[in-house]
Amino acid sequence: MKQINELDWELILKKPPVKRSINSSMALSNRIRIEVEKPKNKILNFPVKVFVTMVFLGIFVIAAYTALPYFKEMNMRLTQSKLQMLPGTKDIPLFPGLQPESPPSNRYLIPKNTVDEVHRFYKDNLPSFGWTMQGEGEGTGNGAEGSIKGKASFWFNEAKLSWLRVNLYEYQDGRRQLYLEDDYRHSDKLMTNWQASPEFDYPVTFQNGEKYVYQLQGVKERLAFTAPNQFKVNIADKHLWFFWEKKEELLGQKVKIIGLSKKTGQIFNVFSAVIPRDYEGQSVDGIQINMPSGLSLPSIGLWRLYVIVGDKYFDSVIVDVN
After folding, report:
1. What is the residue-wise DSSP string for 117-144?
2. What's the rounded Cα separation, in Å, for the pair 67 and 77?
3. Has this prediction a pTM greater than 0.70?
């Protein structure tokens, strides 16, 4: 057994041992660790959490925005699948519960619903089938069966260059009728007469007082273009288009020119542009608006050029391509 000398006793007395239990040591260690890490959580972890949250939020927004057209298309297809179509068509829905008149035609009796309800149905549903409303109106008149109240809406389908007129009638005896005129504009003589649009001279006076005479082809005081009868297959020539319309109705609008071939029935996107809002050089005298374009058509023969301003049909001209 080791003996403790006087020097050893002196050291023990000067530095008495500190006794700690295992639990108290761990508690002290934990307290020290927690006290050290608390400032770290406040200073470093909070910005990291915000950044991660913003990243996940951004991913969610992008995913939702990307999926929105898909859900819209699915909803449109679901709506279309539930609707009955006008016989012979795939894009003109019938108001549910109507009774066709005899003999069969595009006329239907409305047994229960009001004219306004049927009118609202077509305003809500036709756009999902590619139709854009061109206008609407209502009025009264007299017929063989007494007074008649009428309401109509006019629609254009850019994909197939076709028109639809939705007519609603309410007769004096209480009968209500729907009449759908499919492609009604093509029954017009102007639409069935495939002749090149006429040429004419158009004198103008510019804002600086200078006078000039344009040689135009088209519909006078409605829609025409310069360099008439100079269309060559697949050769883009420069033309200046004249629109007789108020400036506020045209400036800032997108203009599309779509061609329809009489010979083949081909539909061809000819030209599109936006008329700038701040381009004052387009005005001839405050009424006519000029738009430059280069037009090229893919085959010979007569072509009808449909001009669409915004989402509305403006007018058309016929050209002969050599």
Report:
1. HHHHHHHHHGGGGTEEEEEEEEEEEEET
2. 15
3. no
Given this model, what pLDDT does residue 239 score? 85
Distances (CA, A) of 48 to 38, 57, 61: 15, 14, 20
Q: How far is CA 45 from CA 38, 39, 59, 114, 168, in A?
A: 10, 10, 21, 64, 67
Burial of 158 (0-12, 13-18, 19+ CB in 10 A): middle
> Containing H/E element for 190?
helix 189-192
- DSSP bridge pairs for 272: 256
Inter-CA distances, 274 with 36, 131, 233, 280, Å: 64, 22, 25, 14
pLDDT at 78 (0 to 100): 52
Give the β-pairing of 162-171 and 176-182: antiparallel
Phi-psi region of 119 (alpha: psi -120 to 50; beta: other; left: phi over 0): alpha
Phi, psi of 93 (to 5 degrees): -75, 155
318 or 282, which is more confident: 318
Do residues 260 and 266 make contact, with C-beta atoms less than 8 angstroms apart? yes
Mean pLDDT value of segment 150-164: 93
Quickly tell me which residue has 């007395």 as its tokens.
13
- Residues 190, 196, 199, 204, CA torsion sign: positive
Q: Which helix (H) or strand (E) holds 154?
A: strand 146-157
Q: Which residues does 180 contact at the CB level (< 8 Å), separation at least 6?
A: 86, 92, 106, 108, 164, 165, 166, 167
- Report how far residue 122's alpha carbon sits from residue 4's, in angstroms, rounded to the nearest whole number: 111
3-state secondary structure of 69: helix
